[in-house]
Design a protein that fits this description.
35% of the residues lie in helices and 18% in strands. By secondary structure, it is an alpha/beta fold. The chain is globular.
Length: 452
């Protein structure tokens, strides 16, 4: 594989953050896309989750950014808030050594006025969802006249969500001399139509992803009682982390409540939750303080959660591509994983799953039938983050040296712009909350609370 250092025009300020993250060589999609993007070509790229597509378009976009011009030069359109945040976080990490670089996220669930105020102060890159971008365009708080390149990330997902016309309206607001980059996990006819409409003589790239579902063991379980079957699946595999997919918001809420009532540490995520609640659900799941996450398909793409032991399709998706992306949440980064799909015998939705998965044999006599997914950790939040110059080392140092905690009593630390989430052993979490009323981190007091 080709090292990033072989890119002639790549400045040290971008190479160093790549090396610090362990990205020394390019993935296939990066190796094929980056030179063409630097040449100003329009691209149509088929790239699965986990293939490195974000760096593929973010790195050359950063290289072409004029930091002396504080107007938006790159617009990245994503289907969901979560993907917008994920892309923005990756870009900010890559650009950490670039002086005065600014990237803004624009999505619903947060006040439009606050976003408008930030836009008025200027930015180099914008990452947003179609609905909120249109809101700003209609109110005159967003001007795309300075945009040099537009990136459509997870374009097939956006079309599935009905954003075809919205995308055309947004892109039409930018000058036609812009470069257009379309990234899609699949190439259905509607993607080809969109590409023909938006792209000018595009270079087409289709790569075999680094992450495939080959390392995922898939099962099906026939049942007329899904609640009972789910507990049987949990008893059989005894996972450390479990991601459950339902088709509707109502089902995620109902199932989460039932799991909680039976002793599982479960939380939920669906499209109607406020952004802060969605972020907190994902953080609690990723740091292990809530080992069960019940989700609609808002979580099947665009959320990079590692170390998921087991995925369960509580409801079967109607589309095979959705099924593929759901089970792709496990077995990541070379690890093995398992996925189980519950189905009712005779269901017309099962044919594509039955073709490739084996039937799960349940041993109802096993001693683990009362297994519960719980955690020794819970999550606390601080009212400060990256903008207050907080770092993980600052928090670890304070908690260990001044509060007397052992390193193993502190779990994952997630730094956001103005908030920090820390997984803490339940045996000391109340002590930490009490001590933070007087203990300072980097000479400053922070308000702390337990995340429900």
């Amino acid at each position: 594989m080709t090292p990033f250092s072989t890119i002639d025009t790549l400045p040290e300020a971008l190479l160093k953050p790549l090396n610090e993250q362990g990205f020394t060589t390019m993935t296939p999609v990066q190796e094929q896309s980056i030179p063409l993007i630097l040449q100003g070509k329009d691209l149509l790229v088929q790239s699965k989750t986990g293939s490195g597509k974000t760096i593929a378009f973010a790195l050359p976009s950063l290289m072409k950014t004029n930091l002396g011009n504080n107007t938006p030069q790159t617009l990245i359109i994503t289907p969901t808030r979560e993907l917008a945040e994920q892309v923005a976080a990756q870009i900010r990490t890559l650009a950490s050594a670039l002086p005065n670089f600014k990237a803004l996220t624009l999505y619903g669930g947060v006040p439009l006025r606050a976003q408008a105020d930030s836009l008025a102060k200027g930015a180099h890159m914008l990452i947003g969802t179609p609905g909120r971008l249109l809101d700003h365009l209609s109110k005159g708080t967003l001007d795309l006249g300075s945009i040099e390149r537009v990136v459509l990330d997870e374009a097939d997902r956006m079309l599935d969500m009905g954003f075809y016309d919205d995308i055309l309206k947004i892109v039409a607001q930018a000058k036609r001399t812009q470069q257009r980059l379309l990234f899609s996990a699949t190439f259905p006819e509607k993607i080809k139509t969109l590409a023909q409409t938006l792209l000018k003589s595009p270079q087409i790239i289709s790569v075999t992803p680094e992450h495939t579902n080959d390392q995922i063991e898939t099962f099906v379980l026939s049942t007329h009682n899904r609640e009972k079957a789910l507990q049987q699946v949990i008893n059989t595999f005894m996972p450390k982390s479990l991601l459950i997919f339902c088709n509707t918001k109502a089902d995620t809420i109902t199932l989460t409540q039932k799991l909680q009532q039976t002793g599982h540490a479960a939380t939920t995520i669906h499209g109607d939750l406020e952004q802060a609640a969605r972020q907190e659900a994902i953080i609690k799941f990723s740091n292990g303080s809530s080992p069960v996450l019940v989700a609609t398909d808002v979580a099947s793409r665009g959320i990079d959660i590692d170390n998921v032991d087991l995925v369960v399709n509580y409801d079967l998706p109607f589309d095979k591509e959705v099924y593929t992306h759901r089970i792709g949440r496990t077995g990541r980064a070379g690890a093995s994983g398992r996925a189980v799909s519950l189905y009712t015998p005779g269901s017309i939705k099962t044919s594509y799953i039955l073709e490739e998965a084996k039937k799960l044999e349940i041993d109802t006599t096993q001693n683990s039938r009362n297994f519960r997914l719980v955690s020794d950790f819970e999550t606390i939040a601080l009212n400060g983050g990256k903008k207050q110059k907080l770092r993980k080392g600052d928090i670890l140092g304070t908690f260990c040296k001044e509060m007397g905690l052992e390193a193993e009593q502190i779990g994952g630390i997630t730094l956001m712009a103005n908030r920090t989430y820390i997984a803490i052993d339940k045996s000391v979490s109340r002590k930490v909350l009490k001590m933070l009323k007087s203990v300072r981190i980097k000479k400053r007091k922070y308000i702390a609370w337990l995340v429900d």
